[in-house]
Design brief:
By secondary structure, the chain is mainly α. 77% of the residues lie in helices and 6% in strands. Helix 1 runs antiparallel to helix 2, helix 2 runs parallel beside helix 5 and helix 3 packs antiparallel against helix 5. This is DUF1772-domain-containing protein.
């Protein structure tokens, strides 16, 4: 006989925070590559220093918003939900099943059985871990390009010198290519969070 373990409103709220935050991360990182970077190159009359200023402004604005308003809350939300759900899983063992605050028991239509706490907890832990990799990936693969671009931005006279256009264009495109890895991380975290939340609510 399965042991039914009740999720609290806090558990669902933590999941919601994780999903919304990771969704914002995915949206903003994707917009950077699909909208902002193309705009930097769209106007052919811009000087190199102006192009670098546009890149620098979007970078600083993104960093100042991603961490406090999306990355940190989402990571905390997923982590809290994962810990609480895995704690329930230990109490219920392999036969435990999740009960929503509404009283309904969550099930997984795809498998035709109950959605066990251990499964949900692992999905949430993976979603949190993916976000944890975000700053690590940035430090390992992107900061060098950022440093070069910021150095050139600070030296406007040199940036506008003859022969610098190709180098600046190459650096910005190299940065954008590496940035796609962050899009993938944000998309994976968001997808995992949505899958878990939908499995709990829609299939209850």
């Amino acid at each position: 006989m399965p042991v039914t373990l009740a999720l609290s409103t806090i558990d669902l709220a933590a999941r919601a925070v994780g999903v919304v935050g990771s969704g914002c991360m995915f949206g903003t990182t994707y917009a950077t590559s699909s909208v902002i970077v193309p705009m930097i190159f769209a106007e052919s009359t811009l000087s190199n220093s102006q192009r670098l200023t546009l890149w620098n402004n979007q970078f600083d604005s993104s960093v100042s918003r991603w961490l406090p308003f999306a990355l940190a809350p989402s990571f905390i939300g997923y982590t809290i939900a994962a810990i609480r759900t895995l704690t329930l899983a230990r109490k219920g063992g392999k036969s435990g099943e999740l009960k929503l605050p509404s009283g309904k028991v969550a099930s997984t239509a795809r498998r035709g059985n109950r959605y066990f706490p251990g499964e949900s907890g692992k999905v949430l832990a993976l979603a949190a871990g993916t976000l944890f990799l975000f700053p690590i990936y940035t430090k390992l693969f992107i900061l060098r390009s950022v440093g070069e671009l910021k150095t050139m931005h600070q030296d406007a006279a040199n940036a506008n010198a003859a022969g610098q256009t190709e180098k600046i264009t190459s650096l910005i495109r190299e940065w954008e290519l590496k940035h796609r890895g962050r899009i993938a991380l944000a998309a994976l975290s968001f997808g995992l969070g949505v899958w878990d939340l939908v499995s709990l609510i829609v299939n209850a």
